[in-house]
Amino acid sequence: MSLKKILQDLEQNHNIRTLTPLKHEQNYVYKQDKKLLNLASNDYLNLASSKELKQEFLSTLKEENFFFSSSSSRSLSGNFEIYEELESFLKTKFKGKEILHFNSGYHLNISCIAALCLIPKTLFLADKLIHASMIDGLRLSKGTFFRFHHNDISHLEKLIQKHYQNYDNIIILTEALFSMDGDFSDLKALCDLKKRYEKIKLYVDEAHSVGCFDKEGLGLVKKLGLEHEVDFLIFTFGKALTSMGACIICQKEYKSFFINKARAFIYSTALPPINVAWTQFILKKLPYFQDKREKLQHLSAFFKNKLQEKHYPILGNAYIISLLLIKNEKALALANKLEKSGIFAPAIKEPTVAKNTARIRFSLHAGFSTKELERIIKIL
Asked: Would the N or C end of the chain have less CB density within 10 A of its end CB?
């Protein structure tokens, strides 16, 4: 198929992606000079626009971290002390575990999963709705994997029983809070499975939950007291933590393994020290944002209840709430109508979500008011 035909097909299926420059201001974005309430950000705690936080950070920034490039991978000269400081800080929160920082959640998942595929007789069982970065890691490394129905523990256990004798390691891949359907993984049930089958290891991505649960803001796994049951715990810093980068929390031998075998870690120039310092600054501040976490839960329940009162087809049990429109053109039409009314909530289409599940994804944060959310309901 030619390049021209590929683009034509995307156009005909209402699935072509384009980029529009946006100016950000508090809860709003400006798109072609039109002011729009931004419902498309993953800044769940509403920290990104805080001038006070930025000023405090800059006033305490050490000179040795004032670099806008690391100029090397961490394996060479890019391993600034701030990396070790950040990892050591998180180690105090996860006793008995080691921490390894990556440039992004995508880099981390694709390379750590690909590395784990190198271990002989390893099988992966992946929730149907896990992030593309995890699937890409499996596909690019040609790992052996099967996908179980979303959040279906019964189906998962059948796969475990079917393949158990043929593998030495079975790694279950899931997310704590799923990025598009906005529902939670049954982490307790997964940990119970692990106790019954000794070959099982759990790989849990907290990209959309870190910061927003637990009194220290250290995610859903931590809140449930399951951190010692999860073998590979992933934190992404580019969402609620308003920074960039990610880390994997694992046993010491696996940290050494990833340093040596995770290609995105080995061959990427490390993030600038100033970014890592900002991540550490925010991590240390997380316990002080409990009021924001509580407000986020309140707003989420309020908005979901209002949508349910209208009998709209919605998905989501937290601050990610999707309105199902099924067809791409219908989702695009509603997104355009919302935009004309001052709401920025782009249509989500294939391949981000499965075919015939196009939607508007409302991403809430602690800076909204119930009045703003009521306005969205009225527009709908």
From this structure: N
